[in-house]
What does this fold into?
Amino acid sequence: MASVFGHAIAAIGIGKLFPKAEMTRKVYLLGAVSAMIPDLDVIGFEFDIQWESMWSHRGFTHSIFFAITWALVLLVVFHRKKGFLKHFQLGSYYFLATVSHGLLDALTNGGNGIAFFAPFSAERYFLPWQLIQVSPLGIGNFFSKWGLEVLQSEFFYIVIPSLMIGLLGTWFNKNVYR
Ligand SMILES: [Zn+2]
It folds into this structure.
């Protein structure tokens, strides 16, 4: 994974791209949770799942299919009463926030590849660029030289791009969404 902080920051940046009116604190919070939830698959380490399996780390929960399903679940649970247009907008946000997790992981320089096409294919992928220092899994390991390198690479490759996306979104909100 990139670190949980990196994933959450990316989700907030992506949220800025959407029309402000629907982007309440609750929506941002759900977006940040969406960007972190794929790593719950580390529970697989407890069950001795083979890494080739689509259920191992960076497998099913990092897939496009999971992101769509998760976005639909959030709509049903938290936004049942909204109309189609708002569902489309919020659903797109939750989808992008969730799928951003796998994409950022695919930019890291360690660990498994990402099973973007699970459950249809267990094949693992990386993007062509390994820009981000892979993050340690335990919090304890985070306070180390490794942790510092993670922060540094995430600052350049997650925080700054998220800020730029946020600025672009602010511009959209001022000039396009009216
Ligand atoms: Zn991950």
